[in-house]
TrEMBL record:
It comes from Meripilus lineatus. The chain crosses the membrane at residues 21-41. Gene3D superfamilies: Chloroperoxidase-like (1.10.489.10). Keywords: Heme, Iron, Membrane, Metal-binding, Oxidoreductase, Peroxidase, Transmembrane, Transmembrane helix. GO terms for molecular function: metal ion binding; peroxidase activity. Residues 60-266 form the Heme haloperoxidase family profile domain. Its EC number is 1.11.2.1. Its cofactor is heme b. This is Heme-thiolate peroxidase. Belongs to the chloroperoxidase family.
Length: 302
């Protein structure tokens, strides 16, 4: 009897691992095919990404109405903006995962692969059925699901239970950090901001944690500011401070099949690999040690 139970458990683990592997192979092949098709099929003309009849066509977005008392909002400015414009339900409640998939595709022009993957991922984290279940925006704030410490637009969950509210000081810091033309954000600005946020959180937050996948979520979220918004500070300001789609804004990703995971990850890896958090915390330790010794030698050259 023991042998039968043990064998069936081992087999079910092996089968689920094989199924996951096939799932991953299928997903990346799908995404790579879309990336390839994007190279072959001509792009949309600028200002023609949002189809006629869809919200945002011609840069005309449904009216922006800030959240009211009792509305559900989350740690993601992009999803809150959809609710603030009524593209997702304004109260942020009872949203189906499929609705989320369709609206993220329609408004931001991420590829179908990305728009399927992220809502699926969050459905898994919430232990809900992707095809039939729904969620409120605040549900996605489950700590160390996708939401994590050391974000650029929210205080850590340890300090702020309500992740639905933007942290104005953090956002102001981000908005003042652009070193590109017109103060626009660059890849290295975001690497630096994320590195500083991680070092700060590690120092201040007694429950700080940051697994490698959360680091990647952090750099992925930040990379949307470079890809979807082109680093443009004038668009990013209302997007982050008010969680509003900028007036007249239109998707700047012109590919027919949207921004694929493959293409997006090129930016994500540049941002993540540019982060020197360990180095800068080491530098700080070294500076502190030197300052304590009362020695200025080499201080500025560290
Ligand atoms: C597809 C469904 C999406 C889900 C489930 C989702 C989920 C999340 C979550 C949970 C966070 C909080 C992460 C943290 O703790 O910092 C977040 C942050 C963020 N997301 Fe989304 N997101 C989605 C789509 C998007 C899209 C399409 C964009 C861009 C247009 C975007 C841009 C951002 C930005 C800029 C942040 C803030 C990052 C920070 O504070 O460091 N997200 N998202």
């Amino acid at each position: 009897m023991f042998i039968v139970v043990a064998t069936s458990r081992i087999l079910s683990v092996i089968f689920s691992k094989i199924a996951k592997l096939f799932g991953a192979v299928f997903f990346f092949s799908w995404d790579a095919t879309l990336a390839l098709l994007n190279l072959i099929i001509p792009n949309y003309k600028p200002h023609a990404v949002v189809a006629a009849g869809s919200p945002g066509h011609g840069g005309l977005w449904p009216e922006y109405v800030p959240p009211k008392e009792g509305d559900s909002r989350c740690s993601c400015p992009a999803l809150n903006a959809l609710a603030n414009h009524g593209i997702l339900p304004h109260d942020g409640k009872n949203i189906t995962f499929r609705q989320l998939e369709a609206k993220v595709r329609e408004v931001y022009n991420f590829a179908p692969s990305f728009c399927w993957f992220v809502p699926n991922n969050i459905a898994g984290i919430l232990d809900r059925d992707y095809k039939t279940d729904s969620f409120d925006l605040s549900d996605i704030d489950v700590h160390n699901g996708i939401e994590h410490d050391a974000s650029l637009t929210r205080e850590d969950a340890f300090f702020s239970k309500s992740q639905g509210k933007p942290s104005i000081p953090r956002i102001q810091k981000l908005l003042q950090s652009g070193t590109g033309p017109n103060g626009d954000l660059t890849t290295s600005d975001l690497s630096q901001l994320l590195g500083q946020a991680r070092v700060e959180s590690k120092r201040m937050n007694p429950q700080y944690s940051q697994a490698p996948n959360h680091k990647l979520f952090g750099s992925s979220n930040a990379s949307t500011l470079l890809t979807i918004f082109g680093g443009k500070i004038d668009d990013i300001r209302p997007f982050l401070l008010e969680e509003r789609i900028p007036t007249g804004w239109q998707p700047r990703i012109l590919n027919r099949f949207g921004l694929t995971v493959l293409k997006f990850n090129q930016t994500v890896f540049k941002v993540e690999l540019g982060i020197k958090e360990e180095l800068s915390s080491e530098k700080k330790k070294l500076k502190r040690a030197l300052a304590n010794q009362g020695s200025g030698i080499g201080y500025n050259s560290i």
